[in-house]
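Audit log entry. Action: structure prediction of a protein-small molecule complex. Ligand: pyridoxal-5'-phosphate. The ligand was supplied as SMILES and no pocket hint was given, so placement is left entirely to the predictor. Protonation state taken as written. Sequence taken verbatim from the request; no trimming, no tag removal. Recorded inputs:
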Amino acid sequence: MKIIPMVDLKIQYKNHKKEIDASIQNVLESGRFILGKEVESLEKEVARYLGVKHAVGVSSGTDALFMALMALEIGTGDEVITTPFTFFATAESISLTGAKPVFVDIDPKTYNINVEKIEKAITPHTKAIIPVHLYGQPSDMAKIMDLKNKYNIKIIEDVAQAFSSEYKGKKTGTFGDMSALSFFPSKNLGCYGDGGMIVTDDASLAQKLRMIRIHGDESRYVHVRLGINGRLDSLQAAILRVKLPYLDKNTNLRIEKANLYSKLLLNCEFTLPYKEDFNKHGYNQYTIRLKNRDSLKFYLETQGIETAVHYPIPLHLQKVYKNLGYNKGDFPETEKAALEVLSLPIYPELPEEDINFVCNKICDFIKA
Ligand SMILES: *Cc1c(COP(=O)(O)O)cnc(C)c1O
């Protein structure tokens, strides 16, 4: 049976094999594996791509969030507002600093934090908001920036799923005091292992982040604060430098695939991804929504079609967060979405015939 995977990471490698191999070879022969020229060049290139002043290459998207919070000196006694409908790392990074994640329910159309509900969650302990641009759809940044100014709190964008998305013509990752990128292999710009980056316009934050990623080093073996081993590998940077120039093209291909899905699924009785007119949705995921999600997922599996649920357990109901005191029913839109969303295969090179195949199978299931 033919298998249609959620993502096929081999095709992109094959398409750019010569350039990528040469770039890896270069690093191997240089003998420079930690930071150095490749990381510095990638930082400049990402900063230029986004139009921001500083970029700091780090070990993962998770560490990017964690280090951004550390740079703001957020910790015990502080609160950070975010969405309960995201990958665990968003909240985990808050908890790791000692601060408390405070969740706010989502807007059921966009699956992003409901900006109308944030204000009620703000307390004198609130230090930051982490909006997540879920699946590639930008959060409502205008409203979030209003809250930032009104309450003097910091914004850290979680751009893990939205590198190359745009909100009202401005790239996601350029709004926050800092923004966290992930180069996990399946993200819109992925490396061949773990990697991430923090971008900011603030020179003093950038300088702090450069110390935090290397154990709070001011200079070798002189530690002026606590940090972590949070560096981006030179090898990953070299691979990313080859792939960055294709990011926009690849995101546009994702958009084409998403539009084809939406065209073919238009008459099905379920909810297609909603896109705000003013947003460029980067479609890191193409996520539909339906009541009998689990049976469709099971049926597609029997037909060789991989799907995924992003995410099945809302963060306020995770076992590890029992101590936060949340209950079932606290965030009804998140809880409903967790039962109903289903992400279909999507990647820039996904063949049109595969999309046709997937849509036919979905229609068969819906009609049956
Ligand atoms: C992938 C992801 C992360 C974490 O990135 P890693 O590089 O895997 O550590 C954080 N937040 C969101 C929303 C993600 O999708």
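Audit: result stored. Residues 166 and 172 are 5 Å apart (CA to CA). The first strand starts at residue 54 and ends at 58.
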